Amino acid sequence: MPDIYDLIVIGAGPVGENVADYAHQRGLSVAIVERELVGGECSYWACIPSKAMLLPGLTLESARRVQGAAQAVTGDLDVAAVLKRRDSFVQNWDDSGQVEWLDGAGISLVRGHGRITGVRTVSVTAGDGSVTELTATHAVAVSTGSAALLPDIPGLSDVDPWTSREATEAKSAPESLAILGGGVVGAEMATAYTSFGTKVTLLARSGLLGGMEPFAGELVAGQLEKSGAVLELGVSPRSVSRGDAGVSIELENGRTVVAAELLVATGRTPRTDDLGLASVGLTDGDWLEVDDTLLVRGATNDDSPWLYAVGDVNHRALLTHQGKYQARAAGEVIAARARSRAVDDGPWGLHVASADTAAVPQVTFTDPEVASVGLTEKAARAAGRRVRAVEYDLGSVSGAALQADGYSGRAKLVVDEDRQVLLGATFVGQDVSELLHSATIAVVGEVSLRRLWHAVPSYPTISEIWLRLLETYGRPSE
Amino acid sequence: MPDIYDLIVIGAGPVGENVADYAHQRGLSVAIVERELVGGECSYWACIPSKAMLLPGLTLESARRVQGAAQAVTGDLDVAAVLKRRDSFVQNWDDSGQVEWLDGAGISLVRGHGRITGVRTVSVTAGDGSVTELTATHAVAVSTGSAALLPDIPGLSDVDPWTSREATEAKSAPESLAILGGGVVGAEMATAYTSFGTKVTLLARSGLLGGMEPFAGELVAGQLEKSGAVLELGVSPRSVSRGDAGVSIELENGRTVVAAELLVATGRTPRTDDLGLASVGLTDGDWLEVDDTLLVRGATNDDSPWLYAVGDVNHRALLTHQGKYQARAAGEVIAARARSRAVDDGPWGLHVASADTAAVPQVTFTDPEVASVGLTEKAARAAGRRVRAVEYDLGSVSGAALQADGYSGRAKLVVDEDRQVLLGATFVGQDVSELLHSATIAVVGEVSLRRLWHAVPSYPTISEIWLRLLETYGRPSE
Q1: pTM greater than 0.95 (yes/no)
Q2: How many CB pairs under 8 A join A and B?
Q3: Which residue of A243, A274, A478, B209 is surrounded by the most CB atoms within 10 Å?
Q4: DSSP readout, B146-159?
Q5: What would the pLDDT profile of A303-325 be if each residue is shown by its tens digit?
Q6: Subunit contact A321:B457, Cβ cutoff 8 A
């Protein structure tokens, strides 16, 4: 006899937990399947440990940048203490607190590897080999996330490279670390390990933080080099091997980089390779394409929709917070459809993830921090929008100058000229991470530029950059 | 022969400078009158030096609150270095940089004490006694600001008390400091001087930071005491006197507080006592009441309006940024009326300071920081609004916990139940100052709660408090 639930969620990361919770709060019975730790990648091997590893170094550097405070900082970062603090934030990789939360929320946990076996059926194989058959009366939601993608480089699999997992769970800092990839993971881990005193060499095919406004990667690269990291940009590895000295990365330009460890951070791959997708007309290993209500396109169906993909696995926006946002919509819409209630799937409705295309926020905890939301100027133009962008030097804002001696940063707004609203914003500088949500609300709220003139930034904060950007754009004359 | 300008601005603080600049940019000729330093109170004796005095201590404390970073902080704040840094931010009280800016902007500076002598006429008496008569073809704007109010306490004028000026220009930290007043100035200076090692005793009639949400003053008071300050709340001074031990403050409860210096921070008084107001039907020493276009009510007039009051002096919102906001509207509307262009004076129009009543932001740089905008719950209820308020513990947000060990803080949203928009928000905690502008945009933009669910806070930032507050309020079900 199979266990029957209204909804089966595969993957108990923050995204799966939220799908389950929101649906359950609307009255559905829910089982959630997890083969590793409840709490998922973010809690144990991504956002939480990475910020825990970055923050002490960033905070110390902030103090060093203020005369009067700087004199009190006479020692170095205590790396063992940083890692011990990191361990406490990841609960020493023990998920009992998260399991307790599931229990309290009334969600049934089924431990093991879940595989879809047909429309609304899931088979879960536990560690001991026992199998539980689950049937959903309404829906199955896949939120298995993504894993580090290992590129096809000769020798790579033989050198036991680090991925984001090993980088965030390291028990000590290696003497040297080569990082392959200039995206968010590469840039953040270069920042963290450099603060630990590790000799970091970052190798990337192009510049840092591609896809963001160009000055973001430039400012981060500049500071990394100032802090002692070596950046090899515009390079590609030809092969890798491990010897007594550590890992050797032979580059296509003929040079060789040697480091104690190699972190590969070149992208992500969906965790869908052993999920039983073929049983419902989909392809194992593929990203799951969804509509705005997170419903998977192309799955074998009966009269009513049943398969959802939420979070990284749908490839809309590979960020925990955005996955959780999708999860709220998905939990709600699954419940609404199960109860035959009206579905609010117009733009910005209750049951859609409209922000996925218009307003994805992201903070990279590098030095300087990079905070962005919505479209870059380039992306907006590529989308055919009539845009005008304005930039301003953050260091010349009083609040920033007060915050750190020699403050260096830059900000940009991308304006939709037809509608006179913001399409995107980017802030790069120390302590800009909390400033981002102002732009997120402006973009999502479609607040007009005219009205934004009335949103007064408090003086002297870094937020005064808003006034400078509006002045740079020009005040309407009538 | 009097000098003739389209607009005469009395007072060259940031507010006067902005009135002048915005009007001049729209084509008016402008003279600005200043009897002290161009740049005004904010630049030399308020926001700038106070934040410069606070920031190093706050930054150092932040580093001490993060295990790993804390170990590197072995010394104390270098007070001499803090004050030297402060000196550089106030340009050593030299206004030549500001004068240069006025020159570059094409605004004529007339140094001396300006007095209104009749409709559109101003007489300026320079330090050497010479008098310049100015005539405005269109308008006179008063932006003389406010000064510290010395309460009527027996003996006070004989003890040479500090006001915010002496507190922000001090060349060294006294051994002990009594502070009279629990408002923003009192709380900030208690924080700064406590960080300098001064033994601070703060005396206030009621709690700290009255007018804000109650938890703001409570959290700041708690931390001040933890840092070693003595708080005497609910007390009133009966008399003061100065002896060999310093200033003695005899309280009405019979106790006596003795300190090397006494800072009086009990309120502000308008700088209108010697402004010639009586010549145009107004009362010397009064605050100047204005309409939403900053036009003074009740002044002797001819056919067209001419007298404006902008900034502290109109008593709408005694904050530099809010005065500058008014200044932008005033500069524009003066120019529009001078050129007989349409005046956009509806709510949130180009020519009004609508935010003065709906959305005044304020950050108090105490530990924890207090950031608020719009109405408190109490004020909203007093205004007859149908409101619901939600609160949440900031320390239980991941981004905050990562930011500081033992993070303590609280946040609150005040919701207009009829319109489902925010009327106000308050954030109290370390590093919340840049978070405020998100709420300011939400209030000013009148962004609906439904839409705010789509404004995703980046994880893990302190901004995630937005999600927690929305969840506490409850998600709409259809």
Answers
A1: yes
A2: 312
A3: B209
A4: EEEPPP--TTGGGS
A5: 889 999 999 999 999 999 999 99
A6: yes
